[in-house]
Give the backbone structure.
Amino acid sequence: SDADRVAVLFVTVDPERDTAELLAKYVPAFDPRFVGLSGDAAAIERTAKEFKVLYQKQPGKTPGSYSMDHSAGSFVFDPQGRLRLYMSHGQGADVFTHDLRALLNESSRS
């Protein structure tokens, strides 16, 4: 199926809070095939800059609490690892589905 040809990865911008254990519980709640990725703060910062992902820690209302503001979107890579699509949050499922299906059809022909 087409779903079996797509790998979904969530990448945290909050490695301080998003431990491997937490990601292992949180990410599969969306779909059991999804994978959560983390790394050290420096690696995440480098990767975020490379993909122009913005994020910033915001202090919470109580001491020690915080939230993470971040840009939201999906990067779609082809089987060769080339970035092919960027879908911003709120763009709409119809547009995303159309473009993803076109990529899947393209890769099945090659």
The first helix runs from residue 20 to 26.
